[in-house]
Amino acid sequence: MKKILNVATPAACAVALILSVAAFTNTNAAPATSPAPIVSSAPAGQPVDLTYAAEKALPSVVYIKSVQNSKVQTIEYSNPFEDFFSDPFGGFFGRGQGQGNNGKRQRQVQTPKRAAAGSGVIISADGYIVTNNHVVDGADELTVTLNENSKEYSARIIGADKTTDLALIKIDAKNLPAIVIANSDDVRVGEWVLAVGNPLGLNNTVTAGIVSAKARSMGQGVSSMIQTDAAINQGNSGGALVNTRGELIGINAMIYSQTGSNIGYGFAIPTAIMNKAVDDFKKYGSYQRAMIGIQGGSVKDYVDYMKDQDKEVQDYGTMEGVRIDKVVEDGAAADADLKSEDVITTVDGKKVKTMGDLQAIIAQKRPGDKVTVKYLRNKKEKTATLTLKNEQGTTKVVKNADLDVLGGTFRAITDAKKEQLNIGYGLEILKVNGGKLKDAGVTKGFIIQRINDQAIKSIDDLQNVVKEASTSKEPVLYIQGIYPTGKKGYFAVPLTND
Fold it and tell me: Which of 217, 237, 286, 298 is catalytic?
């Protein structure tokens, strides 16, 4: 039998070399509070007129171009014969810069300038635009072009999150055509929708389809998505999924296809999750991820799997809900005494049929929020109140840290230092004023080469790793480097005040 590989692909369109691009979300969204326009519904079995929806949505969808500038990078390369032929005495008399280490050498290369493109949605008249994280990720320059190429603006990133794949960017403009935002919880399977964006370089494109499923788990990133058969292709990333009134119900994010193009289904991040992310980006600069503290999955999926394996499975009293496989130590569920084999059936009065349903509810919460959970234990219903926690196991707001938290001044090492220490890159600490470096005993003159197993070659590298670590489950910088004497040094630098 011929195997067919199914692939989930972000719908960003590369202009030069393939490039992941990312943008950010905002909170000045235009909610659907004004009276909805009257849109006549066709009789059963008759076509639906989608022209009104297209006319309403198109002006709010923009083209986003992301550019990564050319950079000089240091790379390692190997020649297995180099050590033998260049130094037959095995290094006894010393080696030149970059030689040795089993034939490994370092050299500097110029990376090409890269560009990629995607879409975005104007959610406020003063210039806030929502798009996908992967549309603007790593961008040195962002350019936003309004519908029909009417105007072009430079954009800055307000916030972004890889897990939700959402980003919020801002342009300096006024009186923009902000889209009306609908509640994605009200979306019904089978209703007509339009995907609006800039696929394959074809700007201002509209495709139609229906909502194929809700709360769809994709096993990566956002796990509660709207599934549609409206054609979505590369370049549609960050564009709008709208209902027949032209109201935003989701941000197009990826396709599921056998080929990588639209021979399959598209997936959009619901506005219920988007609104919360936008609010977080504006208030805190980062997405506040709440954790319920369990591992598990849908009861039906588990029962079907066990039957396929010819294994016995207990009677849970239902085929709906989320079965707990493991309770995370010191998590919210553990604190409320939930246990393995319990089945969660409702959260805050909302029915939970699948893991996607549960993730959709929790994705709208913040650490410290309380939720009321009903669950079955040995087929008997119980109720518990859970206080949700962040990835670090606390109820605090998690903010992105910047270089100020380290309390140091840095610069890329000079060529003279590279030659003296026989290294290819690193950041020299010019001054320690206090902060986390001083607390950990890191001193002036130390050269940082790696943090959390990432090479540190520039100030940007350092900023990125500090930002990433500060919101991670383990907010610690594991620093490797070298002293001016050539002695190697290792430090663990906690970023929390605990």
Answer: 237
pLDDT digits (tens, 9 = 90+) for 292-330: 999 999 999 999 999 999 999 899 999 999 999 999 999
Query: Which of 110, 111, 50 has its CA nearest to residue 246?
Result: 50
Sorted by sequence, the CB contacts under 8 Å of residue 309 that are 6+ apart come out as none
**Hey, what are 483's tokens?**
């002293």
Give the chain's mean pLDDT: 83
- DSSP 3-state of 488: strand
Nearest-angstrom CA–CA distance, 60 and 62: 7
Lowest mean pLDDT among 97-106, 198-207, 452-461: 97-106
Token pair for 57: 């949505």
| 237 flagged as catalytic | yes
Report the Cα–Cα distance between both ends of the chain, in Å, rounded.
57
Establish whether 325 is a catalytic residue. no
Question: 70: how many CB neighbours lie within 10 A of its CB?
Answer: 10
Q: Which of 83, 161, 165, 342 is catalytic?
A: 165
Q: What global pTM score does this model have? A: 0.74
Of 66, 119, 124, 134, the active-site residue reads 134
9 contacts: CB under 8 Å, gap ≥ 6: 234, 254, 255, 256, 257, 260
Q: Which two tokens stand for residue 31?
A: 């909610």
Q: How much of the chain is helix, strand and coil, in % rounded to 5?
A: 20, 35, 45
pLDDT single digits (tens) 122-166: 999 999 999 999 999 988 999 999 987 778 999 999 999 988 999
DSSP string, 18-84: ---B--B--S--EETTSPPPP-PPPPTTSPP--HHHHHHHGGGEEEEEEEE---EEEEEEE-TTHHH
Q: Is 458 a catalytic residue?
A: no
Return the ∠ at Cα 282 (arms to 290 and 435), rounded to 5°: 80
Q: What are phi and psi of 169, to 5 degrees?
A: -125, 165
Phi–psi pair at 468, nearest 5 degrees: -65, -45
